[in-house]
Target: Type III pantothenate kinase
Amino acid sequence: MNLVVDAGNTFVKLAVFEKTKEVSFQVFALEDFCKKSKEIFKVYPEISHAIVSSVGFLSEKEIAMLSVFCKVHVLSHQSKVPFKNSYATPQTLGVDRMALAAAAFYFNPAGNTLVIDAGTCLTYDMVNDYGEYLGGAISPGVAMRYRAMHQQTSKLPLLEKGEIIDFIGNSTESSMHSGVVNGICNEIDGVISQYKQRFLNLTVIFTGGDAQFLSERVKNTIFAHSKFLLLGLNHLLEYNKR
Model:
């Protein structure tokens, strides 16, 4: 069995896989990592390998704790990947984007796949029908756009994402919602259209914390998959066992 750990800014996603089948999933605060990890090994003592994707928020001590229970692979630019990596600076490629590219490679073999991850940042990652990772784009996510307007001005309030009744806002708050939600959806539709002009039979995967909220509002046909990154991490763990 495999343990997959995706550590973000404040939360950790933890999943247990039996080969390619997910058998357990939970989300918890970063400070609960050690306690929750020990609990999962009590429930699943058959776990023999783990992979950790962290953007620097898990300490070496916390990661080392896992090695008491199983073999641990910390994902980095030195990890083996099943796709051809054509990123010009592979050492700077985020581990989350590596995992998404791996998930795309296995999800749609021999196909053109664009993965859109709507998290803290909005990332676009492209794997073509030759199994080649080309790169993509990074732009501010939903919460970041709201926060930027509040922090970079003296009077605009800090809002949570919300529904827009009309794209023409008739108040400060509705104008901000239109600017963020309508703006980011138009961005996504525009980017997808650009990729469709270059890549035939393009499959678009939408994932990340804001994926469900945004996927209902974009015009293009997409596949929403909330745990796509975790699937990619499990694939990478299996690939690096070899």
